Amino acid sequence: MRSFRRTPGTGDADGRDVRDDGGDLRDVAALAAAIGVVGASFGALAATAGMPLPMVVGMSLIVFAGGSQFLAVAVVAAGGGAVAAVVGGLLLNLRHLPFGLAMAPVVADRPLGRIVGAHVLIDESVAFARARGTGPRARRAFWACGVSFFLVWNLGTVVGALAGAAMPDPATFGVDAAFPAALVALLLPTLRAADARRVGLGAAAVALAATPFLPPGLPVLVGLAGLALAGRAPARTRPGEAS
Amino acid sequence: MTWLAIAVLGAGTYLVRLAGLLLRGRVTVPERLQRLLDLGASALLVALAATAALTQGDGFAGWARPAGVAVAGVAALLKAPFVLVVVLAAATTAGLRLAGVP
């Protein structure tokens, strides 16, 4: 809790709050638990769709992008063919390109760190790190998230694939609400700035309006149109004063 | 599903992620563009939160999930601990579904 209240989220967290890393780790663990459950539901879904165990686990290890894995398995299960599954999954993951552009300085300074970090650049690790500014604390949060989410996602996949149809439906536990709720909590500090709020509201409106008409992944991308509301850079104010 | 499909999806996803990270190192980014990149990442995350909270496929997700997210959002505004926010979301949604809300 302390860790959240203190985090301005606009780029001036500079790692002074070393003692809050414990709180950060607890928050990482909370999100990791939800990701593990979703990983288990992916494993179960893929196994019951007839994918052999090594392939299910291999997919989680190699792709490590939950939304696109669900989508690809669902497309193939519906008889859509491998090409449609791959194209759909890639469309869904295109948003990671602008994430990479924005997050590069946080992930690592050297190319080697970025080459490793690229594999764990997922929505959750990006949102988590961004809520902790751009300093060393954000970098520690990114790597703690990336590594632990990778582990629990794959562990969950194995458990789910072994349990197969015996896995209860995760919707029963409301796990699908945990991810957007976590995003909301992580985005609140950023949204205290008036320009980020304008852009965010515009992005959400455009993405929601586009959802019935576009294939999965594209509505979020066209949400970038919200940048039209960016306006001019505000004079440097402390977060919270911008409104 | 085939191993080839998994390999292509995996390689493509990785290259998309890597491209952004490495491109940023190749060019010096003026402050104006840096601000737009930051705002763009926020915009994508907000759009992701909104669509994940409200939609399933190309339609409405039903009331249970957005209700859970709304309760969690209020808790987050009241500075509840992150763990509680996540648990509240799942518990509210699960409770509503138990009560028959889709």
UniProtKB/TrEMBL annotation, chain A:
InterPro entries: Brnchd-chn_aa_trnsp_permease. GO terms for biological process: L-valine transmembrane transport. Pfam families: AzlC. It is a multi-pass membrane protein. Its main location: membrane. GO terms for cellular component: plasma membrane. Keywords: Cell membrane, Membrane, Transmembrane, Transmembrane helix, Transport. The chain crosses the membrane at residues 28-50, 70-94, 141-165, 171-191, 203-230. It comes from the Bacteria. It is found in: Cell membrane. Belongs to the AzlC family. This is AzlC family protein.
UniProtKB/TrEMBL annotation, chain B:
It holds the Pfam family AzlD. The chain crosses the membrane at residues 6-24, 36-55, 67-91. Keywords: Membrane, Transmembrane, Transmembrane helix. InterPro entries: Brnchd-chn_aa_trnsp_AzlD (IPR008407). This is AzlD domain-containing protein. It comes from Pseudonocardia benzenivorans. The lineage of its organism: Bacteria, Bacillati, Actinomycetota, Actinomycetes, Pseudonocardiales.
